[in-house]
Amino acid sequence: MTKLTLGSHPHMLGFEQLERLLERTAKTGNEGYPPFNIEQTSDRGYRITLAVAGFAEEDLSITVEDRQLVIRGRQRDDSSERVYLHRGIAARQFQRSFVLAEGVDVGDATMENGLLHIDLTQVMPETVVQTIKINRG
Question: Is 33 exposed, middle or buried (0-12, 13-18, 19+ CB in 10 A)?
Answer without folding.
Answer: middle
